[in-house]
Amino acid sequence: MEFGAPCSRALNGGRPCGRAFGTRIRRAAVESRSPFGASSFRVSPTPAAPRKNRAVKAVLKGHTVSVDKVGKMSSQSSHDFELSSLTALSPLDGRYWSKVKDLAPYMSEYGLIYFRVLVEIKWLLKLSQIPELTEVPSFSEEAESFLQGLIDGFNLEDALEIKNIERVTNHDVKAVEYFLKQKCQSHPEIAQVLEFFHFACTSEDINNLAHALMLKESMKNVMFPVMDKLIRAICTVAKDNAYISMLSRTHGQPASPTTLGKEMAVFAVRLSRERKEMHQVEIMGKFAGAVGNYNAHLAAYPHIDWPHIAEEFVKSLGLSFNPYVTQIETHDYMAKLFHTLIQFNNILIDFDRDIWGYISLGYFKQITKAGEIGSSTMPHKVNPIDFENSEGNLGKANGGLSHLSMKLPISRWQRDLTDSTVLRNMGEGLGHSLLAYKSALQGIGKLQVNEARLSEDLNRSWEVLAEPIQTVMRRFGVPEPYEKLKELTRGRAVSQESITEFIEGLELPEEAKINLLKLTPHTYIGAAAELAMNVDVAVNLLSGLEIF
User: Fold this and answer.
1) What whole-number distance in Å separates Cα of residue 503 and Cα of residue 36?
2) Which of these, 397, 395, 399, 392, lies nearest to 434 by C-alpha position?
3) Alpha carbon 404 to chain centroid distance?
4) Please, what is the end-to-end C-alpha distance for the chain in angstroms?
5) Are strands 364-366 and 63-67 parallel, antiparallel or unpaired?
6) Selected catalytic residue, list 44, 140, 145, 375
7) What is the 3-state secondary structure (H, E, C) of 485-504?
8) Residue ranges, the chain, pLDDT below 70
């Protein structure tokens, strides 16, 4: 796999974000070495076994995994398994890796460690800029460049080194501090102030900012661009089919006609509204020590305005400052962001299901791809798998995001540790969402409108003109218009001839009668076409963003 840069240039003062992320590494993962790979996997029958008890062996570069006839795997095999695309517990890290790997530089363990390193170094640099803190004098340009280089050049080997330190400390944040001290002890200027790494900090001061930056950069660089691409794709379908008439269905029954494009526009506008809400969520951070009161800071330097220093520091990272906290940042912004993401996903589920239904009705055909198989037994099938995949992953994403949004704002007294393990799963919710968006986009790209099928349904549904006829009758004072149309149409076969005969027998002004006689199920679409054609303007106005 190959990671992209874990941060924006803006976060790093315009500098590139690190040489590590141009480096290709094997997918085998955390320890960077695996005893086996997909290419070395072969299956063979156990030669000595009688036929009825014959087992299967999987040979993994010298490791043999026996599987008996009913699929029971021998107990020792689990000790041989290391992370690969075949052994990953989550399909995001296996089957779907190529679709979601853009999130890895931000939402992985690597991403968390990287942003911890960034925060620790930026805090030391901030301390050097406080005149009253004489023990940490202003760094020379060369020293600042050295520290910035630790951020820019941070790579997978550095992250593995920190994990090795953690094996001794059994504390992930302390391992980062020790790593930085080791890296800087050879620099004469920085070596004088090594104990000011992590000065007055609780681990959560570092972690909450790291998690905030992980979210901020993930949303900005990965999630929002794909969301915008999805909204644009739906808008294109809306405009391309603005004038394609379609029979509506309410309660599953024929209803007043619309256009295919207008129904697509509805989803684009709904999604853009939630996209705007997400963009407006303030990503927040705290830096107030063990219980939120700057106790240690003021004990060491009672005359420094630490709340002001903390606010400046948090804002310098591109985050909003939360001054009222306990040991942890309250996570309320996370709950708001995840709730809004859930709603975006819910709207997309609605879209997926509608498209699935339109494909079932024959309103859309799907462009086939050579070599693809729809069913293992029914060769004719072209299944709507992209929309089904999207729907399934959106449900999985929402389950995780719902737990995050409900759990994270709750913490016992000044802090418990339940948020720590939960926060490590942010990437799961974003990953399944990202996978779903890409599946929906792939499905949209295969759609082909079947105008003949749309026209066929409209031609069989002349009863939908009961609505405009009875409405015009009301205007001109014809008694009991609704009741008369109900008697004509409800539960009865209605044809163009019967509708024409009914209109001609009405006591209406001639112009009104002529206008009604011109109506067909194809033309009775109201303002649907105009609404579809104006979708780009509506999306930009609602989102407050230039999606187009």
Assistant:
1) 78
2) 397
3) 14
4) 32
5) unpaired
6) 375
7) HHHHHCCCCCCHHHHHHHHH
8) 1-80, 373-381, 542-548
The first and second tokens of residue 50, run together, are 């009688």
> Distance between CA atoms of 116 and 159, rounded to whole angstroms?
11
φ and ψ of 320, to 5 deg: -90, 150
What Rg value do the Cα atoms of the chain yield, rounded? 31
* Helix (H) or strand (E) segment spanning residue 449: strand 447-449
pLDDT at residue 38, rounded to an integer: 36
pLDDT of the residue at 383:
86
Handedness of CA 25, 28, 29, 35 (dihedral sign): negative
Q: What is the pTM of this model?
A: 0.86
State both tokens at 392.
């399934």
375 is known as an active-site residue: yes
Strands 56-60 and 364-366: what pairing? unpaired
The count of residues in the chain is: 548
**What three-state secondary structure class fits 291?**
coil
Number of Cβ within a 10 Å radius of residue 60? 22
For 101, the token pair is 């790997």
| Model confidence pLDDT, tens digit, residues 124-173 | 999 999 999 999 999 999 999 999 999 999 999 999 999 999 999 999 99
Q: Which positions ≥6 away from 123 have C-beta within 8 Å?
A: 198, 199, 201, 287, 313
Position 90: which residue type?
A: S
Q: Are strands 253-259 and 284-285 parallel, antiparallel or unpaired?
A: unpaired
The whole-angstrom separation of Cα 195 and Cα 120 is: 12
Q: Which of 79, 251, 308, 380 is catalytic?
A: 251
Q: In sequence order, what DSSP letters do the residues of 243-262 get, joined into one string?
A: T-EEEEEETTEEEEEEEHHH
Structure tokens at 398: 């929402």
Whose CA is closest to 143, among 183, 176, 200, 113? 183
- In angstroms, the CA 355 to CA 409 distance is 36
Question: What type of residue is 485?
Answer: L
Identify whether the C-beta of residue 440 lies closer than 8 Å to the C-beta of residue 351.
yes
Burial class (CB within 10 angstroms; exposed 0-12, middle 13-18, buried 19+) of 252: exposed
Catalytic status, residue 251: yes
Distance, in Å, from the CA atom of 364 to the CA atom of 380, rounded to the nearest integer, reads 16
Structure-token match 């950069």, residue found: 217
> Rounded distance, CA 396 to CA 96, Å?
14
Tokens of 33: 């070495």
3-class DSSP string for 263-282: HHHHHHHHHHHHHHHHHHCC
Query: Beta strand pairing status for 364-366 and 245-250?
Result: unpaired
* Own/partner long-range contacts of 498-504 (Cβ < 8 Å, ≥24 apart): 498/462, 499/462, 499/465, 499/469, 502/469, 503/469
Which of 467, 263, 461, 463 minimizes the C-alpha distance to 353? 263
pLDDT given at position 399 = 97
Nearest to 208 by CA among 451, 351, 411: 411
pLDDT at res. 128: 98
